[in-house]
Design brief:
By secondary structure, the protein is α/β, with parallel strands linked by helices. The protein has helices at 13-26, 66-76, 97-106, 135-138, 161-166, 179-189, 214-233, and strands at residues 2-9, 27-28, 33-40, 54-59, 81-85, 89-91, 95-96, 109-117, 127-128, 151-152, 156-160, 193-204. The strands form three sheets. An eight-stranded mixed β-sheet has the order 4-3-1-5-11-8-12-6, with helices on both faces. Strands 2-7 form a two-stranded parallel ribbon. Strands 9-10 form a two-stranded antiparallel ribbon.
Length: 234
């Protein structure tokens, strides 16, 4: 089986290099071919590399949104499983792909994630309940649990390609934010199983630009409104 890890950079070469180094060190697979698909979303002069895995590098002519970039990566290379990995993720312990694929296949899981922690080892708020109107104002997510959640934040999503394709991938009408919620809630509606691989953790060095920069804040709020309108129509 082929597994593609899709990583999208926004002039984040140093972050991506650290991620790829951690993948070289901690990602394990004896039975599957791993392809690292790196998309540079802006005009930045660098090239990614890996000691152990094939790297496909795409440099965009024009800037694309989160969903569109990952959809293009999915279309670019046929694969059996498609992983969406943020550039600010780092592996710090063994991540056995063979175990994960076996678990997802035997349990018919379409979308999953390892446990996501911060640099101090504290579990982050990566499991969330469906977005509500008050999220437009507060943008504060109620903390869900491993056994009780609606969707998984798109920091490190592991998807079965057949299910990702059946869902139509990410909705490209979102430029940034909420695509992960939209995908997972669509999966719920179509009976696709979501779960957490609790045998491994990854570190997320959160950037949280929407809390510091007005442009990203406005994009975030607009994405929530777009999602709520879409949900209301259905």
């Amino acid at each position: 089986m082929d597994i593609v890890l899709s990583i999208v950079s926004h002039r984040q070469a140093e972050l991506v290099k650290k991620l790829l180094q951690s993948i070289d060190e901690f990602l394990i697979s004896k039975s599957h071919k791993i392809i690292l698909m790196v998309t540079e979303n802006t005009d930045s002069n660098w090239y990614p590399s890996s000691r152990h895995f094939e790297v496909i590098f795409v440099r965009n002519i024009r800037e694309k949104g989160f969903g569109e970039n990952h959809n293009k990566a999915f279309e670019y290379r046929n694969c059996d499983y498609f992983f969406i990995v943020n550039p600010d993720i780092q592996l710090f312990e063994k991540l056995d792909i063979d175990e994960i694929i076996g678990w997802m296949s035997s349990n018919k899981i379409g979308i999953a994630s390892p446990i996501v922690v911060d640099c101090s080892g504290i579990i982050q708020n990566f499991l969330r309940y469906d977005l509500k109107v008050f999220d437009i104002v507060f943008r504060k997510r109620l903390r869900a649990s491993l056994s009780d959640f609606d969707w998984i934040a798109g920091m490190f999503l592991m998807t079965n390609s057949a299910d990702f394709r059946r869902l139509g991938g990410f909705d490209p009408r979102y430029f940034m934010y909420v695509e992960d919620c939209d995908l997972c809630m669509a999966a719920r509606a179509k009976g696709v199983n979501l779960s957490v691989w609790d045998k491994a953790k990854v570190i997320h060095n959160a950037r949280r630009d929407s809390r510091r920069k007005v442009r990203y804040l406005m994009i975030h709020i607009a994405s929530i409104i777009k999602y709520l309108k879409k949900r209301f129509r259905h």
